[in-house]
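Example 3.2
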Amino acid sequence: MKFDRPALRILIVGGYGSFGARLVTLLKDDARLSLIVAGRDLRKAEQFCASLKGVAAILTPQRFVRGRDGEAHLKELAPDLVIDASGPFQAYGKEAASDPYQLPRAAIACGINYLDLADDAAFVEGIAALDAIARKAQLFVLSGLSTCPALTSAIVRVLASGFARIDEVAGGIAPSPFVDMGRNVLHAIASYAGKPVVLWRDGKKASAPALLSHRCYAIAPPGVVPMKPMRFSLVEVPDLRLMPQVAPSLQRVWFGAAIRPRFQHAGIVALGRLVRAGILRSLRTLVPLMNCVQRHMRWGEHRGGMIVEATGSDAHGAELVRSFHLLAEGDTGPFVPVVAAAAMIGRVCDAKPPPAGARAAWADLQLDDVMPQLSRLKIRTGTRMTLPPDTPLYQRILGDAWAARPPEWRAMHDVRTTMTASGKANVQRGKNPLARLAAFVMRFPPARALVDVEVRFDVKNGVEKWTRNFRGRKFSSTQEEGTGARSHLVIERFGPLAFSMALETQGSRVALVQQGWRAFGVPMPRFLGPRVTAHEDVKAGRFVFFVRITHPVCGLIVQYDGWLKPDA
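Structure, written as tokens:
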């Protein structure tokens, strides 16, 4: 496919909307592009284009309304590619004279390539009806070039490595409570809440009521402070129908969403039950209220993410579970649904367009195509998998981030039975009487400089006991992997006190980030407890450590830092 113009001319319908605006933001730095930012309101298109800074692409605001005059308008604008980023696609059959594919048909008639960000399962699956005319016109017409199914399918193909058979693919999306999901997303949820959605179960198509099936997941990319485990509820996405094409052995597919704040999630689920019972026809009339709650009642972590998990068996018949985790900090989460489209546009600019034909975009991108777009944003990704029970604790927690740690660091934590390490440390103690009392009770060492230190590691049933010996002053703790609400965390116990710590990689350093604490098994308020600051690193070829324990009332309790080397 060749383009005569010096810049690839792209019409983005809904270009100033929730997702269209973010797609334009990702593309605006590419001088190879001429972007027509279009929608119903020309003034909004103009204001959005004027708000962007440092633009290398050509931006042109334009009024565009799909409908009877759409084909004539497309001929007038003469783009090389049209992208539908508006929606809601669930309503297209009603809005467009009962033809949900009016825009792609018009694009084909005008000799223009087409792609969309559709998330409606029926719309994405049904676009294959245009395959014959798209092939005849030598055009590509791709639907669902969004999180689902384009990105999720690419992820499953990566997860499939090592599987002899994949039985189930499941996962979910959890947007940050501080980002605007957009009215179209809420319209989509309201349209199918409580109603049957088609999914894959027991190796064949079945149905289940939307939002009334639940699972709990913790989004935890290796080496990143994980998100707290959340409740996900079944949503309608193209993956429920299309994923068996990615993994033919599939028996089950499940995909959900975690809506925040939690009380809104619970309220939508409760109303979905009324739809299921026939008391309500749908939740469409409640979209303004849902949007108001979503805009004004925001609290919790300003983070969002996604998890995709594959379950099956390896070549020896052993059960295998692998999961892909994606975590977006701050306002970057809503960019995830558009990174696949941005990656495809990059391929077209590089003269690597997809083959002609109309289809769901589940096989047109690889994860490697998308990763450069994700790396531009504050987005961390990684995979986890089931490991043998004798795998070292920190390796189980870090997943695929373990291999990237310096060998000296891995040697210190590669404990399977017993190991000792020796070195030197500096110790400081707090002077507050309460701090002295706490240090005495915990048997922390006295203040000294360059004191000999020995640490003995003993492992039993996956629990590591660390016994620290500062020239005769010993104190010990145990470390183990958290479960349930403390999944993917290290739990360190000092007698009746237990501290939850996340392993966060920062270059060569690994920080132990405190997430909570308990006394006698009871969760305690963070503001009442000790503050633990700890990190480990490798410097000059030696494993080095730093631990500082303070309390809001008495200040410093103890601080010790130094180096260790495993004994022969």
